[in-house]
Amino acid sequence: MNSSGNISMDRIKSISSAGGLGKTKVRSLNSFVGLRTITVAFFIFLYAPILVLVVLSFNAGDSTATWSGFGLQAYRTLAADGALRQAAGNSLIVACFATIGSTLVATLAAIALHGRRGAMEQITGSAITFPLLVPEIVTAVATLLALSVLAIPLGLATIMFAHTVFCLPFAFLPVKARLADMDGRLLDAAADLYATPFRAFRAVTLPLMVPGIVAGAMLAFITSIDNFVITYFVAGAGYTTLPVYIYGVVKVGVSPEINAISTVLLAVSVSLVTLSYFVGKLRRI
Fold first, then answer.
1. In whole angstroms, how far apart are CA 264 and each of 53, 127, 187, 276?
2. Percent of the chain with pLDDT over 90
3. Using CB atoms within 10 A of its CB, is residue 83 exposed (0-12), middle (13-18) or buried (19+)?
4. Which of 140, 219, 254, 265 could form a disulfide bond with 233, CB atoms 3.0-4.6 angstroms apart?
5. Cα(163)–Cα(144) distance, integer angstroms
6. Residue 204 CA to chain centroid, in angstroms?
7. Is residue 105 part of a domain?
8. Is residue 267 in some structural domain?
9. Is residue 136 assigned to a domain?
């Protein structure tokens, strides 16, 4: 310990390399009483409601609080609900458009910014990811204001445009990270083999980018299909998506059908996130 009462890093390293001082040991976080209990309680509080929701979606009765046995009545009711099918169709159309649009723009932006260290490139990259730091309600209000100033009528097209912009950073970051991990010597090797820039991109860069592109597309799809705030502000009359439909039904009361819808969305989200994780870890070369 130095004169100021602080422990220097050099001193810690020297003591560690020498085997420590006597039998003095630093306590591990696992040794603190109650830490494990708090952690378990936190996860129970976080995931127990989701588990209850999934179980009650298979309730044979009409009550959301009393278990009446296993059944698929809620899912049959969903399949026969025309308004729900329309909302689900709108959500799917919007999510697919937003996924394709945001992934295409994000991929082109990541390629354009890759390997550049100028101030303009840094500003551009920060501008693309900045929406992640802005509260979603602010983005929704700003988008609605812009549409109003431009006198653009609200409808399905405005939802698709707003979702594409909002999903852009989610699609951009995996592609950017993938390019950052790429070994530049591969392009040098392709140049040594007299490959043109386009051929080197097609044979080297693009295959390495594919896992990042797919992962970004999946994240964009998940972000779009369950988005409520932005959709609620920019949707026109008669253009209801699934989250907005759920919100309207929940205002009347929670029913087994709502549990079933939520379970389906949960299954889709978990599946895509899991697939995105494994795709992002792929190594083509």
1. 11, 34, 44, 18
2. 20
3. exposed
4. 140
5. 12
6. 27
7. yes
8. yes
9. yes
